């Protein structure tokens, strides 16, 4: 487990960028934290770290899953916020699609089952610009 404090969006992106360099195909990252915590900002940093243009990344408001290519690995970015609880990765067509790349999921609380081998990234809001980011390879079920 690692815990880091950041005091700007740029620092949060830098944390994600560093993590991205260690990721292998099939990696699943669960992004936990309130609205405005910095989950999408973290995904921007992942994209940068994978060599994808960071401005490609936006909140997937109208599409459930966005796919960003052009980097070391494809990055799949899902935001489950608007879904009812109890969905599964295969309902979403995400079980196989992500095997060749990195899958980052905002609001994984909506998933019916824990994802084996996923890395949980919790972003807690400490104040306006301060966040505590906890990265944990064994998410609580
Ligand atoms: N330390 C920080 N890390 C990440 N975002 C921060 C930080 N400080 C302030 N922010 C701001 O918080 C907001 C996070 O937004 P976003 O990444 O869309 O959150 P989420 O996807 O979790 O709802 C942005 O406006 C960002 O500039
Ligand atoms: Mg978001």
Explain what you see.
It is a single chain. The chain has 141 residues and is an alpha/beta fold. The protein has a domain at 25-109: P-loop containing nucleotide triphosphate hydrolases (Rossmann fold). Helices cover 20% and strands 26% of the residues. It has helices at residues 9-20, 39-50, 94-97; strands at residues 2-6, 28-32, 65-68, 75-79, 102-106, 119-125, 131-136. The protein has a 7-stranded mixed sheet with strand order 1-7-6-2-5-4-3, covered by helices on one side. Helix 3 links the parallel strand 4 (75-79) and strand 5 (102-106). It starts with a strand and ends in a 5-residue tail after the last strand. The mean pLDDT is 91. Adenosine-5'-diphosphate is lined by residues 6-9, 11-12, 33, 35-41, 59, 106, 129, 131.
Task: Chart the SSEs and their pairings.
Layout: E1 2-6, H1 9-20, E2 28-32, H2 39-50, E3 65-68, E4 75-79, H3 94-97, E5 102-106, E6 119-125, E7 131-136
Parallel strand pairs: 2-5, 2-6, 4-5
Antiparallel strand pairs: 1-7, 3-4, 6-7
Adenosine-5'-diphosphate binds next to helix 1 and helix 2.
In short:
By secondary structure, the protein is an alpha/beta fold.
């Amino acid at each position: 487990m690692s815990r880091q404090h950041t005091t700007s969006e740029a620092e949060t992106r830098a944390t994600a960028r560093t993590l991205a360099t260690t990721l292998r195909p099939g990696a699943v990252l669960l992004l936990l934290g309130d609205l405005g915590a910095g989950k999408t900002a973290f995904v921007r940093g992942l994209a940068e770290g994978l060599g994808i243009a960071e401005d490609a990344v936006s909140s997937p408001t109208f599409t459930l899953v966005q796919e960003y290519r052009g980097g070391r690995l494809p990055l799949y970015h899902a935001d489950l916020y608007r879904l009812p609880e109890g969905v599964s990765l295969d309902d979403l067509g995400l079980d196989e699609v992500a095997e060749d790349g990195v899958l980052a999921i905002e609001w994984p609380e909506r998933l019916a089952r824990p994802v084996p081998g996923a890395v949980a990234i919790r972003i807690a809001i400490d104040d306006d610009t301060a966040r505590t980011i906890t990265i944990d390879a064994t998410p609580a079920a």
